[in-house]
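Below is how a single chain appears once it has passed through the pipeline. First comes the sequence as given, then the structure the pipeline wrote out for it. We keep one example in the README because the format questions we get most often are answered faster by looking than by reading.
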Amino acid sequence: MFRIGVIGSGKGSNFQAIASAVSSGRLEGVEVAVVISDNPNAHILERAEKLGVPAYYIAPGKFRTKLEPEIESAYVDTLKRYNVDIVVLAGYMRMVKDVMLNAYAGRIINIHPSLLPAFPGLDSFRQALEYGVKITGCTVHYIDGGMDTGPIIGQRAVAVYDSDTPESLHARIQQQEHILYPACIALIARGKVRLNGRRVYIDGKYPEINNLIK
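Resulting structure:
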């Protein structure tokens, strides 16, 4: 069984999409082993508890954008206690630093609501509207310690309409995230993804990673 640990700070819609893919058999041989949050009120914790997934709140400490090393060590200890194979960030709003990067080198992935390297950081859908692009989307990538700079595993594109608001655009991007994230996890779990430096190699063609513009 391929075991994943999910870390999130908010609503947990991507966690829910992953859990649904597991229960439906689309993520065969995959188990969500544990969920951790830095936010005691995060809905992701409630979602996990309803699904019977072990869920933990670990207080974040004094910094807003990162965890102190001893607190990040507590995250790592919890992940190791559940023998996770990869760490899946799902709406986690802090930078991952050395303790976790060293413990899970090449085994931490994230989803970001833009076609990286465009529009890293917060409110990327708002950035896309302000910049005036006609296409944006979402990206699953490995974490490397930078701000949304890790090697790219998969992307899905979303058209930007003249009538879009940040909220409407974000909602359509999230629809594609809920397809892309489970698909990329499935590839990793099957051993189809190989990371070599900054290049990600995928063994075989899996069209669920990419799409026509929606």
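The CA atoms of residues 140 and 191 lie 16 Å apart.

See the next section for the split statistics.
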